[in-house]
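hiii so um. not sure if this is the right channel but i have a protein structure encoded as tokens and i wanna go backwards to a sequence. like what aa goes where. can anyone help
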């Protein structure tokens, strides 16, 4: 029996991530140093681990409600109010999800239909488009490369007008993966002034909010557009809890009442002991990200100095933990082949810019969520490679 043509046809639009393809292509290299993953090299704070252990010992092993523990939603409400001046009611404006990825999936499945379009500033994290495509909708990228990866109100409005009635949502991600770009209060307010004129959802992925280096607090667009914004948050980056898979959807009561339907039938609820750990993180670990952030800042500055000396053009990232560097013009601009050759010759892996869409080609992404020792050795080998290629 041949079932090969019986799948959802939208799956034909989706390929295995180029990040995974690249990783597979170089994974056989002995002792390779990887500055590839968006995963903190720090461990989850001990007080968070102890809270989860205590929950397990207390037999907290049953389902929570679909929206997650009320005490966790209350902790999230307090955390976001204190940190970002946001007001979300715990009882009807917050959903606990299995990581930010499920938060994105539940949100996009909940709002999109076949034929809809979604605007996305690019280059961008490659995880959005496959979800959009699976429901038969389309991503339309806004090229930001000529403006230092910053989306302007003019760019945004032009793209909105071009899409017309087909446009259902705009995705924002800041601090951004892969560029590290983030936005000031004035910039966010200007984008909000455009968006409030149109009946579109604003899906704002702000999981790197605690990792900003400007000296100013992160500003959420939800502060200005509470009725349109679907805010995506999580603890993976802020508390080094990637494997715990705790994310959050925050929005108006009307939007949450719809999204809980897609969330329910995708996953039922997040793991109960992990939710107890998250309560501890949000209540008693409000500043757990600060020492990590300062270490990331040192790593960022070291990489920028070394790579600039080698001829790479870098827009200094103000958030997250990525460097997005332009390959010098006299080297291969095919980022996949450039980094494959580098990996084979020097046993160091970065991520090809092409993994982040057509506007990422010619760039490479380096994750500085790795130890300083690893970073220094990687920069040493990069210098050797560049010098040898010029010989």
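sure thing!! here u go:
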């Amino acid at each position: 029996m041949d079932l090969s043509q019986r799948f959802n046809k939208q799956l034909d639009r989706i390929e295995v991530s180029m990040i995974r393809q690249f990783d597979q292509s170089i994974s056989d290299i002995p002792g390779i140093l990887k500055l590839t993953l968006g995963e903190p090299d720090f461990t989850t704070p001990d007080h968070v681990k102890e809270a989860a252990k205590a929950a397990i010992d207390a037999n907290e092993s049953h389902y929570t409600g679909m929206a997650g523990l009320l005490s966790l939603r209350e902790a999230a409400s307090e955390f976001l109010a204190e940190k970002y001046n946001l007001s979300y009611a715990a009882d009807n404006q917050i959903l606990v999800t299995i990581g930010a990825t499920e938060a994105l999936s539940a949100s996009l499945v909940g709002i999109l239909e076949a034929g809809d379009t979604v605007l996305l500033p690019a280059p961008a994290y490659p995880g959005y488009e496959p979800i959009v495509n699976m429901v038969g909708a389309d991503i339309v990228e806004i090229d930001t490369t000529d403006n230092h990866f910053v989306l302007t109100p003019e760019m945004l409005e032009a793209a909105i007008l071009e899409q017309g009635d087909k446009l259902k949502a705009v995705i924002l991600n800041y601090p951004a993966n892969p560029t590290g770009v983030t936005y000031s209060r004035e910039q966010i307010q200007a984008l909000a002034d455009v968006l409030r004129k149109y009946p579109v959802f604003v899906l704002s992925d702000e999981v790197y909010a605690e990792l900003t280096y400007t000296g100013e607090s992160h500003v959420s667009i939800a502060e200005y557009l509470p009725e349109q914004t679907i805010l995506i948050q999580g603890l993976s980056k802020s508390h080094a809890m990637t494997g715990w898979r705790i994310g959050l959807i925050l929005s108006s009561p009307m939007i949450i009442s719809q999204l809980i339907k897609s969330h329910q039938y995708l996953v039922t609820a997040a793991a109960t002991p992990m939710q107890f750990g998250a309560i501890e993180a949000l209540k008693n670990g409000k500043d757990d990200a600060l020492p990590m952030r300062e270490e990331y800042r040192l790593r960022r500055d070291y990489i920028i100095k070394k790579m600039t000396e080698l001829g790479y053009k870098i827009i200094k990232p103000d958030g997250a933990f990525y460097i997005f560097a332009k390959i010098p013009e006299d080297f291969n601009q095919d980022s996949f082949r450039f980094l494959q050759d580098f990996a084979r010759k020097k046993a160091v892996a970065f991520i090809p810019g092409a993994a982040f869409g057509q506007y990422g080609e010619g760039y490479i992404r380096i994750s500085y969520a790795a130890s300083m020792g690893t970073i220094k050795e990687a920069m040493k080998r990069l210098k050797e490679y560049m010098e040898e290629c010029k010989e």
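oh and The chain has twelve helices and 13 strands.
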